[in-house]
Amino acid sequence: MKTPFITLLITSALLGCNTESTTQNTDTGQETTATVAGQSAVQDDDSQKDVVKVAAGSPDHTTLVKAVQTAGLVDALSNAGPFTVFAPTNAAFDALPAGTVDDLLKPENKEKLADILQYHVSVAGYPLENLQDGQKINQVNGGDATISVKDGKYKINDANIVGTVKASNGIVHIIDKVILPPAK
Questions:
Q1: What domains are there in the chain, each with its CATH number?
Q2: pTM of the model
Q3: Among residues 83, 90, 7, which one has the least CA distance to residue 39?
């Protein structure tokens, strides 16, 4: 007797995770599909901002925010985390060779853009004071990045960490250079 109830409960939970919902009108027999927004659509002006909202609130990170949106990573980065995001500034993107950002933002380069952005994210909380010289950090794209500390200054690969902002789901370390993943 409990098995059908448990099956119904599990099925309901799994269906609740979908981003699309299909219903059939019993009067007309027509199906309609509605898209349901993800975690990023939750409106909350009272709580601490998540890593995406921290970046979105910064005038120095408009290129990063546009890239995260284009790559379809907003909902993933709005989840509970914890995340450590190494967030390049607009100036860091501007320092890339001419046309690089525009090329990466094209729909046909979405996968490449996502790979680069995921190389800027760790699924763990790394406060600055816990980072150590020579420490390897596994990034979401599967690559490793290396921390260096010299004279109290922190770097990830060859990018300087120039600031830190705490978020509700992690930490945003502001960096002065776009770090590129190693070739796979």
A1: 1-36 (no CATH), 40-175 (2.30.180.10)
A2: 0.73
A3: 83
